[in-house]
Amino acid sequence: MGMSAEGLLAEARALTEDRLARRAGRLREVPGGRQGEALAYALETPGKRVRPALVLASYRAAGGSHPGIAGVAAAVEIVHTYSLVHDDLPCMDDDDQRRGRPTVHVRFDVPTATRAGFQLVPVAVQELIRGLGELSIAPEAGRVLAARLLEASGIRGMVAGQWLDLEAEGVSLSREDLAEVHRRKTGVLIEAACELGGLAAGAGPALVATLGRYGREVGIAFQIADDLLDATGTSEELGKTAGRDAKLAKATYVSRLGVEGARREARRHGRAARAALREGGLESAALGALADYIVERRS
Ligand code: GRG
């Protein structure tokens, strides 16, 4: 039997934060100074660590059991962390609170935060390489993992999603376009997290595809839940400024379908995620529990 989503998140937090703290320690030495402090601040600010939990649960669902998977999980989390640092900049969503703390550019300054965001990308790749080494993954398989992570982070994934999202401010999107923005901005990295867990365990194409289908559904559900929380949660609960989407006139599931419609849609994707596991013959109580958590979460 699997564990609860909370148990898995706590485990993923412990495993990943150990790696993040080690990276932070090194960055305090090189580059050191204010820039090193900003990098360490970004890495050490507490997050839910949902993506590491998905890497871990997918890895285990595919039969993996080596602790080196934490390196892969941390790599995904570091890419996510960079995206938050840049997303909060004045030229993007311009926010001053994140994870219950001042954003990096508020705590330091805009140039320092901009540089820190960029510097986190190679740090993520270094963490991935380290994890692949610990897992004794063959170079060819490692190349596939690295390609997947970078593809998800780039112009086919997160960068494209953010770009579309910024362009869509004040614009009314069709339902298909809205789903595409959500999928790329948030979903693709989550989908990749699930696939990376499978690939790291040596899963074949069918199993990786099942994990990808599951990830695609929970990825969209995650962003719809984020929209819902932005509209219905408080800044205190969220650790970031609530009500930002309305203020920036963002196209979201809530602006399109209303709170109840968006909630129904998130739940529908949660059920589709469980169905993907079932149809792929993959039994994982942990992935099932994470899907439920992602839909119903309160922060
Ligand atoms: C160059 C156009 C361009 C973009 C750069 C900044 C960027 C890439 C992408 C932004 C992607 C982004 C911030 C998407 C939102 C994802 C999201 C729902 C974040 C919240 O994630 P949680 O709830 O946060 O997991 P914690 O704090 O728990 O980790």
Can you describe what's shown?
It is a single chain. α1 packs across α4, α4 (69-87) runs antiparallel to α6 and α13 packs antiparallel against α14 (285-296). The protein has a single domain (5-294), classed as Farnesyl Diphosphate Synthase, CATH 1.10.600.10. It has helices spanning 5-29, 33-44, 50-61, 69-87, 104-107, 110-134, 139-153, 158-167, 175-200, 205-232, 235-238, 244-247, 253-279, 285-296; strands at 97-98, 101-102. β1 (97-98) and β2 form a beta hairpin. The model has no long low-confidence stretch (mean pLDDT 96). By secondary structure, the chain is an all-alpha fold. It is globular, with a radius of gyration of 18 Å. It is built from 14 helices and two strands, in the order ααααββαααααααααα. Bound molecules: geranylgeranyl diphosphate (GRG). Geranylgeranyl diphosphate binds at residues 47-48, 50, 83-84, 86-87, 92, 99, 158-159, 162-163, 185-186, 223, 226.
Query: Overall mean pLDDT score?
Result: 96
The CATH homologous superfamily name equals Farnesyl Diphosphate Synthase
Question: How many distinct domains?
Answer: 1
The separation of the N and C termini measures: 26 Å
**What top-tier CATH class fits best?**
Mainly Alpha
Beta content comes to under 5%
Main-sheet strand order equals 1-2
Q: What value does the Rg take, in angstroms?
A: 18 Å
CATH-derived architecture: Orthogonal Bundle
Structural class: mainly alpha
